[in-house]
Amino acid sequence: MAHSHLGLSAVEWRKSSYSNGSGGSCVEVGTGAATAGIVPVRDTKTAPTGTVLTFPTTQWTHFLNALHNRQLDG
């Protein structure tokens, strides 16, 4: 597995609309010009120093479409 360091300091983070603010499972997605071609995703409990998962923009779009269309199991 390759490890790399991305310059994500300029990323604007958006919290999931399903986050309730009571310390539950919260996911943030990075947006903005600093994310060209990738979508960074992180757990708010470990931000800002925790692990950030990155996905190619096209794959993230396919994932969101599958969620929207209820094509994912369980």
From TrEMBL:
Q: Which InterPro entries did the record assign?
A: DUF397
Q: Which Pfam families does the entry link to?
A: DUF397
**DUF397 domain boundaries:** 12-67
Q: What is this protein called?
A: DUF397 domain-containing protein
The organism named in the record is Streptomyces diacarni
Which lineage?
Answer: Bacteria, Bacillati, Actinomycetota, Actinomycetes, Kitasatosporales
